[in-house]
Amino acid sequence: MFLHRSGVSTKRSSDNHAMRKADSQAKEKATRLRAQTGSISERDSTIDTPSSRIIRVQGLPATTTDSMLQILFEQFPGFEDARLTQGADGVARVQFQLVEQATIAFNGLQGFRLNPTHTLALSYVVDKM
Fold this sequence. Notes:
Blueprint: E1 2-3, E2 9-10, H1 13-37, H2 42-47, E3 54-58, H3 66-73, E4 79-84, E5 91-96, H4 99-109, E6 113-115, E7 118-119, E8 121-125
Antiparallel strand pairs: 1-2, 3-5, 3-8, 4-5, 6-7
Helix pairs in contact: 1-4
């Protein structure tokens, strides 16, 4: 904590970061638990039902590279690969080890605004394995 000249105390930004990280981890744990137990609410299942370890990403800027995608998705557990889809501007496929791991990334980045004109739209891809 910092004590300002005015006598008002504030938390350090690292304390705020730790709180956000703990909150994020709690949400991820809840998502994993729901995916493992199969207790996904009706509201969730009407949006997108977790069914694949591969996510289709739309809404990417034309300047996006495979490296940029990797940086965006490697923060999630189980990340395996991210590649732009040939012949389709602003579309990519991202693969995870498990469906549950893909679900965590899906929930974390669905609707994420990359910039004022590009918002991610994610969907599951049928895994043909």
